[in-house]
Every structure is written in C-alpha cells, then in structure tokens.
Amino acid sequence: MFRRPPRPLLPFLASLALASTASTALAAPPSFVIHPYLQHLSPAEVTVRFELATDAPASVEVRSGDTPASRIESPASRFHSVTLRGLQPATSYSYSVRSGDLSSDAATFTTSHHEPDRPFSFVLYGDSRSGSTPHGAVARAIEASASDFLVGTGDVVVTGGDRNAWLEFFAIEQRLLSDRCLFSAIGNHELTFPLKSRGPWIDYFAVDRNDRSTSWFSFRWGNTRFLVLDAMDRWNDSQAEWLRAELTKADTEPGIAHRFVVMHHSPFSSGPHGPNRPFLEAGMVDELVRHKVELVMAGHDHIYERGEARGIKYIISGGAGAPLYAYKRGPGSLAGVSAYHFVDMHVDGDLVTAVARRTDRSVIEEVSFRGTGAWQAPLAAAASASAPAPTASGPVVSAAGPDLPGSRESRCACSLPGSPAPWGPWLTLALPFAPLLRRHRYRRA
Ligand SMILES: [Fe+2]
To answer: Which of 214, 331, 414, 418 has the most CB atoms around it within 10 Å of its CB?
Structure first.
C-alpha cells in the first residue's frame, strides 16, 4: 500500500507562520489602538499621544486659522508622543495625525494662558474605573460642557497593569481627550496588582515618559496654580519637599489669585475611605493652610461631596464610573450625594463657581466662593434636603442623610491610610516578603 512520506514538521510550521504573518500584514490596515489625545497643554506647547496597531512612522499636522500647517515627524513606533512647540497663548489650533494612509479625525485645542483677568472653565471628574456604561454616560455628558480643559481625580482604570482597562478608558474618552487636555492625578488603582508600578500611568500621562519616578506636577491656567499630587505617599521625602517649594513659589507668583490642590485621596472626606491620614499626620494640611490653598479636589470615595475643613474648601468627585458609595455626612461636609456625576468649574477673577451635574446634565447643586472666603449658599434649587432634585439618584443631602437607593459601602478592597485592611489574612502570608517592599510609599489596592 502506498504510504505518504512524513512531512518535515519544522519547515511546515515555519511556512505556516510566514504565511500567517504575511496575510496579517496584508489584511491589517493601519489603525489607531489609542486615538490621538492631548497632554501637558501650556501657553506654548502641547503633547499629542497615540498608539498604532503596528510600528510605523507618523506625523502631526497643526495649524491656526489660515496659516500654513506645520508638520512634526515621529519615527517608527507603536506608541507616539509628539510635542508641538512654539504655540501662541490662548490660541485655537486644529491638528490631525497621519501614518501612511491612516489619518485621524480633525481635532482642535486652545492653548492655555497666564492672563489673570481672563476667565476659564474646566471639568472635574474621577474614578472612572470599573464601570464602562456609567463612565460612558459621564463622558458623553462632559462633552456637552464647554470647558478649556479637564481635571481628573484619579483611578482612571481598575487595574493599572491591565492593558485592556487602559484601552477601554481611551476608547470611551476618545472624543473628549482629542480636544481637551486631561490633567489627572494618579489613583491607587493605577498601582494595583499585577503591576505595582507607575509604569502605564507614566507612559500615558507623565511629562517625561523616561522619568519613572515622578507622578506629581503643577500647572498654571489664568490666575490659578494647580498642584496635582500623588496621594499614595508617606509625605516624608521628595514629593513633600517639592510641594513645600511649589507652595512657597506660588505665594509670590505674579498674577496668581487661587491655589488649588488635586489629589486622589483627600485629607477631608465623609465617604467610607475617610481622610488621607498620612497626608494629615505629616502636617501637609498645615502647609496648605499656611500657603492659602483655597480648594482641594479629590476622588477615591465614589460620591459627590462638598465641604470645608480648617478653612480649606473641598470637593470629592469620584462618580465617573466606579460603583457608587453611600454618602453619610461627616465633619465639615456641607452637601453630598451618591450619584454618577461631574463638576463644571468656572474661574472669573476671584470668583470660583462649581456646578455639579448628573449624567443627564441635571444640576445637583451650584455653589461659589471668592478667594479664601466660605462657600456661598447654593444658587440652584436642587441643593436642599427640603427640596430634593426629582431624580432616581437621590437628593443632595445638606444635613445628615440616609443611605440612598443604589448606593453602598465600599467594596473596592482598597486599604487606605487609617482604615483596616480587608486583605489582612493575605498580608499575614506576605509578611516574610516585607523587606522586599519599598518603605517610603504605600501602594494599596
Ligand atoms: Fe481609589
């Protein structure tokens, strides 16, 4: 009987692999894995970042009005970070990205400015991780707010080392981030298992992607100095020194009327996570008081809360997608609600206005303050327990209130300063490995 000779296996597999590679190369047109988004917007510069499906060169074309476009080339790579320099302050530009036959949708941005008398707006939101549906609803609602930029309170993704979580985040916020720069604080979930490093966060958001050590920064817009902190710190080393120096510098910075702090875990919060104890115990709140910081904006607790403590006003905005927590009024708290939301912020001279909105853009409350003065009575009708907003999300609670429908205690397994660790048994098992951990920071899941 005729018997077919055995076919050599390795050449056969190699030919299959080559055929597969060739067909993939032929079949896969160039595409964006992460569409172009803006970072580090300043009066003179902006960085455009994007990721392609394959290594390829790319270019960014930018123009203002009818002026000829400038083109900046970027060498072959999957991830591109292209800084556009020599821009004019408070000027609108259009830009697009090209790579071979691939071209991004046209997008625009407006550079920042340092003009003390020029009003500006930004949107505050955070804790988008875990919930793609509510996150999408928040993102779509923010798109309808005309703001100059975005401020994030952290926990962008549920697991910092999970690439798919990042891709989902960028897919949901693609339109938003193509036109507006997101200045985001790092959250504890950016540092969670299996990759307890700032790596991906640094790649996507840091000024210098080669500098793996820093995750805090400051920027100025108009008459306001923003200090964006890494809240997951013990406050006994470089960041504490940096913050003291920045605050001292801002004391005498010409044209500065406001100093705002952005951090993931606030020293003031009525949510289940409570206050950031390392920050408090290191005396950092004393520094904020001493240097006349007016407002701390944070997330971590998945609620909207507004309050004032030690003369510093604060907002907790952690309702951009993660499971909501119950709001129970604590010391210093003036209002709060368990609802997916974001906050429209507007600065005009010494007047600062905050409008907290649900995903249907209905107003939770509208409040304001001037400089170091106290919060002014809510301007909109919704901010009273006696006149609750007629939505399923529940009313704003301006006094001690009940748990609201749909809200619950934290289940995110976060272990934070001053709170008991829910993973105590696992910690016991891990104690023999404790010397391997860096001591000067905490990174909690
Ligand atoms: Fe968090």
So the answer is: 414
Contacts of residue 224, defined as CB under 8 A and 6 or more positions apart, other chains included, come to 120, 256, 257, 258, 259, 260, 347
Domains and CATH numbers, the chain: 32-110 (2.60.40.10), 120-370 (3.60.21.10)
In terms of Cα–Cα distance, which of 375, 345, 369 is closest to 357? 345
Secondary structure of residue 205 in the 3-state scheme: helix
| Closest by CA position to 159, among listed 130, 200, 189 | 189
Name the E strands within 299-441.
304-309, 312-317, 333-337, 341-348, 351-358, 363-370
Stated pTM of the model: 0.83
| Secondary element (H or E) of residue 171 | helix 163-172
User: Cα(388) to centroid of ligand 1, in Å?
Assistant: 28
The answer to whether 344 and 331 are in contact (CB under 8 A) is: no
Q: Which of 220, 158, 164, 209 is nearest to 187 (CA)?
A: 158
Q: Read off the amino acid at residue 445.
A: A
**Which residue is listed with tokens 């209002």?**
335
Q: Is 165 helix (H, G, I), strand (E, B) or coil?
A: helix
Centroid of ligand 1 to alpha carbon of 274 (angstroms)? 11
Over the chain (445 residues), what is each successive 10-residue block's mean pLDDT?
41 41 53 97 97 96 92 96 96 97 95 97 95 95 97 94 93 97 95 70 84 87 97 92 97 97 96 95 97 98 96 97 93 95 98 97 96 80 39 40 37 40 38 40 37
CA of 381 to the centre of ligand 1 (A): 31
Cβ(116)–Cβ(103) under 8 Å?
Answer: no
Distance 281 CA to ligand 1 centre (A): 20
Ordered DSSP codes for 4-41? PPPPPHHHHHHHHHHHHHHHHHHH----EEEEEEEE--
Distance (angstroms) between ligand 1 centre and the Cα of 64 equals 39
Q: How far is the CA of 215 from the centre of ligand 1 (A)?
A: 15
Question: Across-strand partners of 348?
Answer: 351
